[in-house]
Design goal:
about 110 residues; mainly alpha; two-stranded antiparallel sheet; 3 helices; elongated
Length: about 110
């Protein structure tokens, strides 16, 4: 079965919900998605990184965020920066470090 990942830092993204769950085909079981045991950690983290750079609004967890991403990218990006504590003048979120993801085992 695929690894279970989630973000522990809040993120404003069409494919990541408020609990940090990630909607990514590669993380879905073979019957419903693209998980293959040979993918490995490097492949999974690379796919998550790509998803962050290029959201998939066609398969969203957050429908309203996906709609905003498609309709008004500038507003989406402003909200994303504000949501994570980033500003245009800083390179890191204020008073905290982003952690990429953590294991979401129960």
């Amino acid at each position: 079965s695929p690894p279970r990942l989630r973000f522990s830092t809040p993120i404003y993204h069409p494919n990541i919900d408020r609990a940090g769950n990630i909607c990514l085909d590669l993380l879905k079981p073979l019957e419903r998605g693209g998980w293959r045991p040979g993918v490995g950690v490097y492949g999974v983290l690379g796919a998550v990184r790509l998803l962050l750079a290029e959201p998939n609004p066609a398969d969203p967890l957050m429908v309203e965020v996906a709609r905003e991403y498609l309709v008004d990218r500038e507003i989406f990006e402003k909200k994303a920066r504000a949501f994570t504590g980033w500003s245009e003048r800083t390179e890191e979120p204020a008073n905290k470090r982003n952690r990429l993801c953590s294991n979401a085992l129960p």
